[in-house]
Amino acid sequence: MFSKGDLTQIVTRDYQGAFNEVKQSVNGTVTNLKELVGQIKDATTRSIPPPRKSPLVMPTCRNAPKNRHPAWRKPPPAWKN
């Protein structure tokens, strides 16, 4: 159940002493995990607006015009004496 990710079940059997403490801990953990999973689902289903594009972003080589040869690929001119 719990070890396989099934958060729909809790321990219902009666125990005494330390086993009862373990039961309470396991059931509390299951409850907390259910709440956490619910919060994550809520957060991921909300509509998040896309980030604004900054006007100062420089184009990369990937989106540079394809009809121009990038100057940085040309070898530097040879030095003349």
Structural commentary:
The chain is mainly alpha-helical. The protein has a domain at 1-47. The protein is built from one helix and no strands. The chain has one helix at residues 18-45. The mean pLDDT is 77.
Strand content: under 5%
Tell me the structural class: mainly alpha
Task: Please compute the radius of gyration using only Cα atoms.
Answer: 30 Å
Number of helices: 1
Shape: elongated
Helix content: 25-40%
Q: Would you report the number of β strands?
A: 0
H-E order:
H
Uncertain segments are none
Ends apart, CA distance between termini: 82 Å
Average of the residue pLDDT scores: 77
**Major pleated sheet:** none
Task: Describe this structure in a few short sentences.
Helices cover 35% and strands 0% of the residues. The protein is mainly α.
Features:
single chain; 81 residues; mainly alpha; 1 helix; 35% helix
Task: Give the arrangement of secondary structure elements.
Layout: H1 18-45
